[in-house]
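Predict the 3D structure for this chain.
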Amino acid sequence: MANSDVHLQHISQQFNVDLRELRNHVLVMGGLVEKQVADAVEALVRGDSELAEMVRQNDNDVDKLELTIDEECTRVIAKRQPTASDLRLVVAIAKMVNDLERIGDESEKIAKNALQLLEEGEAPRGYVEVRHIGSHVGKMVHDALDAFARFDLDLAFEVMKEDKSVDIEYKTAMRSLVTFMMEDPRSISRILSVMWVLRALERIGDHARNICEHVIFMVKGKDVRHASLEKTEKLIERS
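Done. Predicted structure below.
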């Protein structure tokens, strides 16, 4: 259920410009962290040290964007004193930016583990799971940003449901790796690095879900952070 630009139309043309710039900066930051996730996973799976280093360096750009957008949110609230849906938009963006920055942090952790594995030697197991779950959470991040760009409640809810699937995939992969470590103690250090990567990916899925919860708050004015999927779905259906 897309709501187009209904949140971005005001009598004040400058207010329209401020909100559009704010939204566009979030999407730029989102595009950067989406690429960070994909590059971090690729660096690990391919054993690409240059790509891993690039992910780590680009995290500084993500941090700078977070600060810029935070300042913009503060300025819009101070100058425009937004109310109702406008205030929800600015508040939701401020929260989303924190989740995007955390996704960048988790991507950097994956890149660090990729570099460590290059030094220690490739892990004997877990790369298939990393690629699979990495692709899954990467799509979640992409769709969460799309839901924000289009104020699309249905897409936001679909991403929230996907987080359950990622949790199941993560737990299954971890059990498999623990079993392998018990069978081959020599692999423990390298397998632990892969497990930290899987943990980072699972957290990225959590942050994608959080972004979608902020989208629902932005559009509906309801906080669904601790609501069940069933209650959230009923809220959306009443739109």
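The radius of gyration is 19 Å.
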